[in-house]
Amino acid sequence: MMNRSAGFGWYHALGVAALPWVWLFQPDWTAVVVVLILLAHRATITSNEAEPWRSAAVTFSAFLALVVGGGWAVAGGWLVPALGVGVAIWSFPKIAGWGRPDAIDVAAGAAVAAAFVLQPELLVSTGGGWVAPIILVLAGRRLANGVSRFAERRSLTGDLSAPTRDVRGTLSFSGAVAGSDGLPRTVPLDLEIRAGTSLAILCDDGVESRDFAEALSCRTQPVDGQYCIDGVPPGEDERLVAVVGLAEPFIVGGLEENVAALCDAPLNSDKMLAAREACALSEVEEALAGAPIREDGQPLDPHHRLMVQLARVVVSHYQLLVVVDPMVSVNPVRGELWRAGVVRTSVGRTAVWITPDRELAERAEQVMVLRHGTLRSYERR
Questions:
Q1: H helices of the chain, where?
Q2: How many CB atoms lie within 10 A of CB 230?
Q3: Cα–Cα distance list, 376 to 19, 200, 203 (Å)
Q4: How far apart are CA 339 and CA 331, in angstroms?
Q5: Which residues are bridge partners to 354 per DSSP?
Q6: What whole-number distance in Å separates Cα of residue 106 and Cα of residue 97?
């Protein structure tokens, strides 16, 4: 069943696709169709649900309307700037969409304006009109942007995808934690975390925190030991642990795309609402202001990047979670939003929080201290 987001997207796309035909045959109704489009514009323009098919349908409709209204020569002429925009998007995907209108928008607008100045007769319907060319260029931009994002997203599928199989979630680790150089960073450890349990590891050393997180997420192998999930060492290509931390990548795309990054199916409206409430995503939306998210998380600040990462775990089927808390929130309100988000995301999961924040650690079922390569118990206040 099509979810509500996809339904709104197709409603918006069909309205835009119909607009040049209405302008050609029933121009008095153009304003009505524009109003109907605007009703869904804000809710769908930043969503990539059902893309690139939506953009492809709009692009084809605009081109066909130009053929009917102005002939093949006019349609072919307008296809040139649309293809130029597409090539620019493909060649420079990381600058597309930042601070709209960006350089690509300005260049496309200049091309359209120059055509109207040189050939004013193109403004009338018998010359192709002005609605279809603008829609063709804008839809071509969005289509090329979607294809470019998909190509970039494929390189991240190994890191950002659904778990490869279901697990109960008991995590066992024996041996020493290896550093980036492969040498032991800790003394030999023997750690078991029962399924559904939250464990906070207090650590003030950023390097130790990173190495420990890499070990507990099975990205590095223990020195003279073994890593098991439910008593079985995971396979080399298996993805069973979700990681939240500043070094984690994002998908080049919108907020909803990134929230769905760890899912194996499109998000429905109920899941998106749950993620929005659990991780304060309305604040993230305001910060983005419609701009896409880059692979490194820009233009979001560190706090918002971490909240988006929590949200994508909330809607996923991952049963094991490792959080590397850099304590980026100096604002008390933001700090509390982060702690609450970590706790909510961990409910029902086996969760390890590696953090220097004692207030967050106090909310875990178990607490330990990692210092100078040694793991010991922690006495609660």
A1: 4-25, 30-44, 53-70, 72-91, 103-118, 131-153, 206-216, 255-259, 269-278, 281-288, 302-314, 332-346, 358-361
A2: 15
A3: 67, 12, 11
A4: 12
A5: 201, 324
A6: 12
Question: How many CB atoms are located within 10 Å of the residue 264 CB?
Answer: 11
Q: Are 95 and 103 in contact (CB under 8 A)?
A: yes
Q: How far apart are CA 171 and CA 233, in angstroms?
A: 10
pLDDT tens for each residue of 336-345: 999 999 999 9
Residues 6+ apart with CB under 8 A from 132: 20, 23, 24, 62, 63, 65, 66, 69, 78
Residue position matching structure tokens 């975390």: 193
- In sign, the C-alpha dihedral spanning 260, 263, 269, 272 is negative
Please state whether 285 falls in left (phi above 0), alpha (psi between -120 and 50) or beta: alpha
Phi/psi of residue 299, each to 5°? -90, 15
Query: What dihedral angle (degrees, nearest 10) is formed by the CA atoms of 95, 98, 102, 108?
Result: 70
Instruction: Express as a percent the part of the chain with pLDDT over 70.
Output: 85
| pLDDT tens digits, one per residue of 308-326 | 999 999 999 999 999 999 8
- What SS3 class is residue 354? strand
SS3 content of the chain, % helix, strand, coil (to 5): 50, 15, 35
CA dist list (Å): 313 to 156, 316, 320, 351: 16, 5, 10, 11
Sort 226 into a burial class: Cβ within 10 Å, 0-12 / 13-18 / 19+. exposed
Is 358 within 8 Å of 202 (Cβ atoms)?
yes
Largest CA distance in the chain: 82
Q: Which comes out higher in pLDDT, residue 292 or 153?
A: 292
Q: Cα–Cα distances in Å, from 215 out to 6, 50, 74, 288?
A: 39, 38, 61, 33
Average confidence (pLDDT) over 80-101: 67
The DSSP secondary-structure symbol of 316 reads: S
Question: Measured between alpha carbons, how far is 288 from 268 in angstroms, rounded to an integer?
Answer: 22
* 8 A C-beta contact, residue 71 and residue 78: no
Cα dist. 124→18, 71, 360 in Å?
A: 18, 13, 65
Whether the CB-CB separation of 278 and 344 falls below 8 Å is answered with: yes
